[in-house]
């Protein structure tokens, strides 16, 4: 899968969970600090990425995914 | 050990008295920490602008938010960080960019969760250091200032406490909420209420100094779970008490034995971490409390009433039994029952029923109304032999409880002597107790607690009169010679100095050593014994044998040359049987002193408090009897005198039951020299002088055995 496609789909998930326009989301954005994700929403983001990309994110690895860019990099490593 | 780094008032003022506050990481979900803190600040009417910072919301409860701290146009004096720990560093960085100098970090997930959290905490320290930010926390409940000019409730406590003159500092956030509820039920108010959490920046010592300068704080309470800088804490407490006369009360948890593990000496074994902490706190004038109830029992006595000028207490009661209980408690606490003067006695005879007891405790009898209490209080407060009054009430059917409470408030206000009360019971006396509490008459559920509090106040009065003269220094000592001996052992990889070497070190600091020589054969032992003069003591010398008696390594009262030769062979043989791997250096032949008393002197270097001296009844069973006292070095003469008198066995030394008085002055001088050595020779980790043999007054004392651990 191309990186750009991954990024677009990540932003789509983030937009849906946090109710913000995906176009306004930068790659460097921190889910909590910049986008205002609360604890329940953080879990929803993980669930959303897993469903969107058909992957599993282990808890300790999920904790390290702090930004949109982190999510893109993680997913890129785990999809074909 | 102590750092010379104390936050200034100017650095901490914006934390307690900010002109504006930002809540960074605020949310709109009631019942969450971020929301509840914002809600508390708004509800309790903080006297300045409030700026919620929330990347996900435009408004919270009608208050406009900002996405980032740097978006706030107006100055921000104080930022409360409530973001998750993973992004606190980002928020702190922005606070620095904004020019915020004071921060409270509520978030958990730092040092307390392990190595990853510790790294996050260090990052915060680095950012704060770069921007000159002072921060409280992380992992704390928050900060409360009840001053009406500020009214800051930057915490997630259930409600703001009433204003008062007690400052409370706590390392535990959860304990804070319990304390607030406990205090509220008792109408106890606070000036400042601080949960300081992990103390990654602002610590307990900084806060002690800050509250010392706070005009609204009269008494300082501190709950600690660990003492990270004992020397600094002692200094801070001493400074606060001596410069401001404000009492410092500490409740420190973790009293169970831990620190005496793996100690090689008697001193090391006896000087557990809590024994040392206890001694250090007493030495610094800190009132150490065993639990929250005791802490507040003492605090209200110290905050609400004047200190007693002496320990003479008068008890006024309407019930004989509780009066006796109070009298017993006074005796237990070492305080005296006042003897009324003639005028007071006449007043009571004239004005109280014939069946009343007019001596102390004054029993105004069970059917008393407020008029009899009025007379009893007037008499007791007016008597020059009385320096404090304790009032007891039990609720009989005719007892007008609230009127009596009002009477006590009236008589107590403006009195130069402290007045305390104990209304015994719970339901019927509740309203009366409320009157007392709201009018700053310290109330206690039991007369015993009342007397304990009075005793604590009296002891604090005496603390204020303590001698703070710097310790004297002996000039007839040789630090260089001591250092040479210690360095030689360390250079050889040895950390245990057996008797002969230890005594050589002690001699460099002027401690009196008994003449002795090291023999390497039975014949030599006999020769040395003849030279020294019989009787002699003979002792095994080995780096590997610490407790000589346990291996049969000591023979006393050797009276002639043949016995000396036999004793040598016996000692060496026994030592080799018990410890076949021990290297035997020889047998020490030492003059035997008769007729002296055996005491123990010791040193232990505590990781938090530094060098600690020990004194007590000596001998092999010192760890059984544990009749010892501790003091943190350096020591002045007043501390040493108190230390010596503190042990139960002191009367043996001072001449009990017709015995001659021992040379206590010589003991005190030895302790003084040891204290100086402890400070000047940091190589010494533990030291035992056991026994120090004390002769009769004027005849001195002598080191009969010693060992040093480096």
Commentary on this structure:
In chain A, 60% of the residues lie in helices and 0% in strands. By secondary structure, chain A is an all-alpha fold. Chain A has a single domain, classed as ACP-like (Non-ribosomal Peptide Synthetase Peptidyl Carrier Protein, Chain A, Orthogonal Bundle), CATH 1.10.1200.10. Chain A is globular. The model of chain A has no long low-confidence stretch (mean pLDDT 92). Chain B has 710 residues and is an alpha/beta fold. Chain B has 4 domains: 9-253, Rossmann fold, CATH 3.40.50; 306-464, 3-Layer(aba) Sandwich (Rossmann fold), CATH 3.40.50; 515-592, ATP-grasp fold, A domain (Dna Ligase, domain 1, 2-Layer Sandwich), CATH 3.30.1490.20; 597-709, 2-Layer Sandwich (D-amino Acid Aminotransferase, Chain A, domain 1), CATH 3.30.470. In chain B, strands 9-8-11-10-12-13-14 form a 7-stranded mixed beta sheet, sandwiched between helices. Chains A and B meet through loops of A and loops of B.
Topology, please?
The complex is a heterodimer of chains A (80) and B (710).
Chain A: H1 3-18, H2 39-53, H3 59-64, H4 68-78
Chain B: H1 9-16, E1 21-24, H2 33-43, E2 50-53, E3 59-60, E4 63-64, E5 78-81, H3 88-98, E6 102-105, H4 115-131, E7 134-136, E8 142-145, E9 152-155, E10 163-170, H5 173-185, E11 190-195, H6 204-213, E12 219-224, H7 230-244, E13 248-252, H8 266-270, H9 273-284, E14 287-289, H10 292-304, E15 312-317, H11 320-332, E16 336-337, H12 342-351, E17 362-363, H13 370-382, E18 388-393, H14 401-412, E19 419-423, H15 430-438, H16 447-464, H17 479-491, E20 496-497, H18 499-508, E21 516-519, H19 522-532, E22 536-542, E23 554-558, H20 561-578, E24 584-591, E25 597-606, E26 610-617, H21 622-625, E27 628-632, H22 637-646, H23 650-654, H24 664-680, E28 686-694, E29 701-703, E30 706-709
Parallel strand pairs in B: 1-2, 1-5, 5-6, 6-7, 10-11, 10-12, 12-13, 13-14, 15-16, 15-17, 15-18, 18-19
Antiparallel strand pairs in B: 3-4, 8-9, 8-11, 20-30, 21-24, 22-23, 22-24, 25-26, 25-28, 26-27, 28-29, 28-30
Helix pairs in contact in B: 3-4, 6-7, 7-9, 10-16, 11-16, 12-13, 13-14, 14-15, 17-18, 19-20, 22-24
